[in-house]
Specification:
Low-confidence stretches of chain A: none
Distance between the termini of chain A: 36 Å
Family (chain B): Belongs to the binding-protein-dependent transport system permease family. HisMQ subfamily.
Distance between the termini of chain B: 68 Å
Oligomer: heterodimer
CATH class of chain A: Alpha Beta
Strand content of chain B: under 5%
Membrane topology (chain B): Multi-pass membrane protein
CATH architecture of chain B: Orthogonal Bundle
Subcellular location (chain B): Cell membrane
Number of strands of chain A: 10
Order of helices and strands of chain A: EEEHEEHEHHHEHEHEEHH
Low-confidence stretches of chain B: 236-243
Number of helices of chain B: 9
Helix content of chain A: 25-40%
Bound molecules: adenosine-5'-triphosphate, magnesium ion
CATH superfamily of chain A: P-loop containing nucleotide triphosphate hydrolases
Radius of gyration of chain A: 18 Å
Pfam families (chain B): BPD_transp_1
CATH architecture of chain A: 3-Layer(aba) Sandwich
Main location (chain B): membrane
Mean pLDDT of chain A: 94
Chain lengths: ~240, ~240
């Protein structure tokens, strides 16, 4: 299997608070990996370290055979290969839906206006938001915003999509529409790394589940194993708490 | 005070009144624009993230210190005094500054000092998620500022800029101390010649009121335009109309 991102001995501390300790794991091409774990276990921090919104304090992040933590590595170029979807959507408030999905293509990838527009429309269609191209973010519901945010990330044609609890800020009735889009992306063979508390969803879509606790990876494996037949005591406890 | 007298003053002096009002508007508009640009520059300088102990950051700190001194001086002293100091200060070096230029410089610097704080507030009030989303798609700090943050800051500071414009229309009256021929100075000459102080100044009063009222209406309109239509069009509707 082709490795897209490989993480070796990753550490992250805020001051003297160690949030990630010796994290090792790999995301392979076409794979859907779900990161689960209780609040404060470091899932978001791990995701943010991967696209360097946080600077790791130690370890390596290997992308295409190169350690991107080397000083001379072009961080901005690397980031264009990762699509990030935030819990709070973070759509650009000054741009309409279409422009949200175009601005990165235009200014970072230097695509032509026409090409950027076509690509944006293609992905807005994928998420079912192509009819709202003129709307401003504040005019959309949470679920609609998140779908646009997914299209914005996809429009950069990234190699990996990173999702940080994409449905946690949504009203319950809007969770479904976002998960449906993500399921579809998974079926289409996109490489995805998803932090989620939606256990049912994780079981259905993921090829692999990674369970984190207190900044370390406790257990990982196929969903049947980790969710149904966990080997570690801490995993069992976590599942008992969340699945009841 | 009678209406006839007002009419006759107007008949005799309307070109002077208009010229004065034009001067006032010109000074107010130009200096507000200059002030907004100064404020924007200072606001951006004050919010550049500092890396610890690089040469660049020491340099930036020195510039920011100088800018802070400027802001404090211009906010902490009356504009009428600033006008005297700038105009006669420069004249003392044997260089007679154009009075209009001096006026624009004083009001512009004054406005800039106030706007700096509004801009800084406008920048820090932008949600950090906006920066992160821009960074995450590979934008640099400069691109993020130009395409994402500053357009939102512009919108945020527009009301403050409008207030400042209205203040400048009124407060430019103090520039009469350096004999700039704006509306107040003009009125002084008119009233000095006809000795009808109440009527002459009543006309001036109404002219100021018209200018500030129109300015505030225009600004409100611009704000509305920037916010876009309230109802966005769903594309489908357009298709339906075609059939
Ligand atoms: N910028 C920061 N400064 C200091 N501490 C931080 C910072 N960000 C996160 N932390 C700490 O790191 C730990 C892990 O946080 P993180 O957000 O990664 O957890 P999480 O697994 O995503 O939790 P949740 O499920 O609640 O989102 C927490 O104890 C948090 O307080
Ligand atoms: Mg989190």
């Amino acid at each position: 299997m082709e490795k897209v991102i490989e993480i070796k001995h990753l550490n992250k501390s805020f001051g003297n608070h160690e949030v990630l300790r010796d994290v090792n794991f790999t995301v392979n091409k076409g794979e859907v990996v779900c990161l689960i774990g209780s609040s404060g276990s470091g899932k978001s921090t791990l995701l943010r370290c991967i696209n360097l919104l946080e600077t790791p304090t130690g370890g390596e992040i290997i992308y295409n055979g190169e350690n991107i933590l080397n000083d001379k590595h072009d961080v901005r170029k690397y980031r264009t290969h990762l699509g990030m979807v935030f819990q709070q959507f973070n759509l650009f408030n000054n741009h309409n839906v279409l422009k949200n999905c175009m601005v990165g293509q235009l200014k970072v990838l230097k695509r032509s206006k026409e090409a950027a527009k076509q690509n944006a429309l293609k992905y807005l269609k994928t998420v079912g938001m192509d009819k709202y191209v003129n709307a401003k973010p504040k005019q959309l519901s949470g679920g609609q915003k998140q779908r646009v945010a997914i299209a914005r990330a996809l429009a950069m044609d990234p190699e990996v999509m990173l999702f940080d609890e994409p449905t946690s800020a949504l009203d319950p009735e809007m969770v479904g529409e976002v998960l449906k889009v993500m399921r579809q992306l998974a079926d289409e063979g996109n490489t995805m790394l998803i932090v989620t508390h939606e256990m049912e969803f994780a079981r259905e879509v993921s090829d692999r589940i990674v369970f984190m606790d207190k900044g370390v990876i406790v257990e990982e494996g196929p969903p049947e194993q980790v969710l149904v037949n966990p080997q570690q005591e801490r995993t069992k406890e976590f599942l008992k708490r969340t699945l009841k | 005070m009678s209406f006839d007298i007002i009419l006759s003053i107007l008949q005799e002096n309307w070109p002077s009144y208009l010229r004065g009002a034009y001067m006032t508007l010109l000074i107010a508009v130009i200096s507000t624009i200059i002030g907004a640009l100064i404020g924007l520059f200072i606001g951006v300088m004050h919010t550049i993230p500092l890396r610890k102990k690089s040469v660049k950051s020491i340099f930036l700190k020195i510039i920011n210190f100088i800018l802070t001194v400027y802001v404090e001086i211009f906010r902490g002293t009356p504009m009428i005094v600033q006008a005297m100091v700038v105009f006669y200060g420069i004249a003392a070096y044997g260089y007679e500054m154009d009075r209009f230029v001096a006026a624009v410089v004083v009001v512009g610097l004054n406005t800039g000092a106030y706007m700096a704080e509004y801009v800084r507030g406008g920048i820090v009030s932008i949600d950090k998620g906006q920066y992160e989303a821009a960074e995450a798609i590979g934008m640099g700090h400069f691109q993020t500022m130009i395409h994402i943050i500053l357009p939102q800051v512009f919108r945020n500071i527009l009301p403050a800029t409008g207030n400042q414009l209205i203040m400048n229309i009124k407060d430019s009256a103090v520039l009469s101390v350096i004999s700039v021929t704006e509306l107040f100075f003009t009125t002084k000459s008119i009233a000095g010649a006809n000795f009808r102080f109440a009527e002459s100044y009543l006309i001036t009063c109404i002219m100021y009121l018209i200018m500030t009222f129109v300015a505030s209406r225009i600004l409100r309109y611009v704000e509305k335009r920037m916010d876009g239509q309230n109802a966005y069009q769903v594309e489908q509707r357009r298709e339906e109309q075609m059939y």
